[in-house]
Amino acid sequence: MNAPRRLRWLSALLSLLLLLLLLAVWHVATQPSAAADGPPGADMTAEQLEYAQLLGHGTTTPKSAGFPTPAQIGQAVLDNLADPFRDAGPNDKGIAVQLGHSLLRVGLGFGIAALVAVPLGFLIGMSPLVYRALDPFIQVLKPISPLAWMPLALYTIQDSSISGVFVIFICSLWPMLLNTAFGVSAVRREWLNVARTLEVSRLRLAFEVILPAAAPTILTGMRIGMGIAWLVIVAAEMLVGGTGIGYFVWNEWNNLSLANVIFAILVIGCVGMLLDRLFAALQQMVTYAE
Fold it and tell me: Where is the ABC transmembrane type-1 domain positioned along the sequence (predicted)?
């Protein structure tokens, strides 16, 4: 077995061992205590029992199950995957339906941001005059949290779903714009001089020289933008409600179903990893060796 393959197998084995260790610790930590196994109110003093009865919390009421165990998470995974396309009303949609709404919002916002950021980044990267003119606006707008735009979006657009798309557009715009401008401005001068010597037109120069040279940097900006967009969509959907994986998390929290909340967190992480791998593969396709 060669060294890279051996390293890959060892890293996979170590990851598996860490996962098993995490599950074992989780299982032990979520086991009910001896006091919790006793009759309701057994661990309370007489004053606490009387106070609980005054508040209407009878001691015959069973205690909360607490933090879910790994087995309960496994059951929640099976329950949610049994009917992922269920649509039985506003508060009863399957995980695939919620995930589809989130991916649609991210796709729309990210796509519109790419249509704006890539051409504008080209212009900024190719023209020092445009760069100096737009730089103050970029430096002021870039640090603003995307969620800070949500009240203005809701007031102006008056549609919660489209407001979510707008927030994704804002958060995806800056990484793509700045990386495109940097990639275009960093194209080697020798290549540009050769193209000018051959009297290549500006359009052909942009598409056949600058774009291939800047493509890895542009894809890096897209990869960062997609990562931020997937982070922000969860928070945005918690605010606007209705549909989406963020609303699913908030709705299950209101239902006090921590098992479903943890299941949704795992889904968010897995989808985020797949999106990142997709852009990493695209980035690898356009990367070249000098």
Answer: 99-279
CA distance 90 to 37: 38
pLDDT of amino acid 205:
87
pLDDT digits (tens, 9 = 90+) for 91-105: 788 999 999 999 999
CA 216 to chain centre: 22
Could you give phi then psi for residue 93, rounded to 5 degrees?
-120, 145
What is the SS3 assignment for 87?
A: strand
Which pLDDT value is given to residue 170?
93
The domain made up of 95-286 has a fold known as: MetI-like fold (1.10.3720)
> How many other CB atoms sit within 10 Å of the CB of residue 231?
14
Q: pLDDT, tens digit, for every residue of 60-92?
A: 444 446 788 999 999 999 999 998 898 888 778
93 DSSP β-pair partners = 87
Tokens found for residue 222: 């897209």
Which pair of tokens denotes residue 167? 């927030």
Measured CA angle at 142 (ends 137, 146), to 5 deg? 125
Helix (H, G, I), strand (E, B) or coil at 56: coil
Pick from 116, 240, 93: nearest CA to 178: 116
Number of helices followed by number of strands (H, E) in the chain = 13, 0
